[in-house]
Specification:
Elements: E1 2-7, E2 20-25, E3 28-32, H1 39-46, E4 54-58, H2 64-67, H3 69-83, E5 90-95, H4 99-109, H5 112-115, E6 122-127, E7 132-135, E8 138-144, E9 153-159, E10 163-167, H6 178-181, E11 186-190, H7 198-201, H8 211-220, E12 225-229, H9 239-247, E13 254-256, E14 263-265
Length: 266
């Protein structure tokens, strides 16, 4: 399975893209979040992910930096459906309260000749805590992260070769989700900033964690591979080195601090 990091930044970044990524098996892609606008089309193009090959999208929650790109994808894919260049259906997974939000944004901003596909070839899959789905031939289990700001879901994916991949959303891991996260081989976890700069970036006020805390968590859970994302952009040029140095003080596994468009083999 290939992991493509489409964006690594928090909601207010301008020098990198908002946090979102894709999991791919050949020419089949599972897109997780869509960023805050039509830049999603540029990063997909830059990574060679064709719109015609996206059939599964998961939206974690309602914040603009995660959801607003969805309307652009609906517009492009719906248009290609009209043109006869998109085969099959698009499935959009999200917690049940989010379905109407995505539909409303689309209906307010996209022509009816495109939105007519919603609930037909563009299907919404409303989720509740613990729901499973088969995506890219793998079992995906969705779970409520118990967000303090807006209802948000994460997921685990059981990949080939007994690899368990977990996305914990964009807030700190909640111990209520231990049964879902335990035994993960890979964990994607937010790290808003360096611990030493918490006074500057105030992650706790935003219900985020620092590099130190994310790494302490992964070490405690004995997760062998940790990817940090949803960060500030002040240190973009040397973020990888700075975050890795701090993280390695608390975490003994494989620590990754990716740049936008970086890829991994999972």
């Amino acid at each position: 399975m290939k992991l493509t990091i489409l964006g690594t930044g928090n909601a207010m970044v301008t020098e990198c893209f908002n946090t979102c990524f894709a999991l791919s098996d050949g020419n089949r892609h599972f897109l997780v979040d869509t960023g805050g606008g039509n830049r999603i089309m540029k990063v997909l193009k830059d990574t060679g992910i064709a719109m015609e090959e996206i059939h599964d999208i998961f939206i974690t929650h309602e914040h603009g930096d995660h959801i607003l790109g969805a309307s652009w994808l609906i517009r492009v894919i719906g248009t290609r459906m009209n043109q006869g260049t998109y085969d099959g259906e698009l499935r959009i997974y999200c917690h049940s309260d989010l379905v109407d939000t995505i539909k409303t944004i689309a209906n307010l901003t996209i022509q009816k000749k495109v939105t007519k596909h919603m609930d037909e070839r563009i299907r919404f899959i409303p989720l509740v805590h613990g729901d499973t789905a088969e995506i890219l031939g793998c079992t995906v289990t969705f779970f409520d992260i118990y967000s303090t700001k807006a209802k948000q879901y994460g997921f685990t994916m059981d990949m080939p070769n007994n690899i368990k991949f977990t996305c914990a959303g964009d807030e700190p891991y909640n111990e209520k989700d231990y049964e879902f996260v335990k035994g993960s081989d890979w964990l994607m976890h937010e790290a808003f900033c360096l611990y030493g700069e918490a006074d500057k970036f105030k992650p706790y006020e935003k219900h985020h964690s620092t590099v130190r805390e994310a790494c302490q968590l992964a070490q405690e859970l004995q997760i062998p591979n940790l990817i940090l994302y949803h960060t500030e952009e002040t240190h973009l040029e040397n973020r990888k080195e700075l975050y890795t140095a701090e993280g390695k003080e608390f975490y003994r596994g494989n620590l990754y601090v990716p740049y936008d468009l970086e890829t991994f083999q999972i």
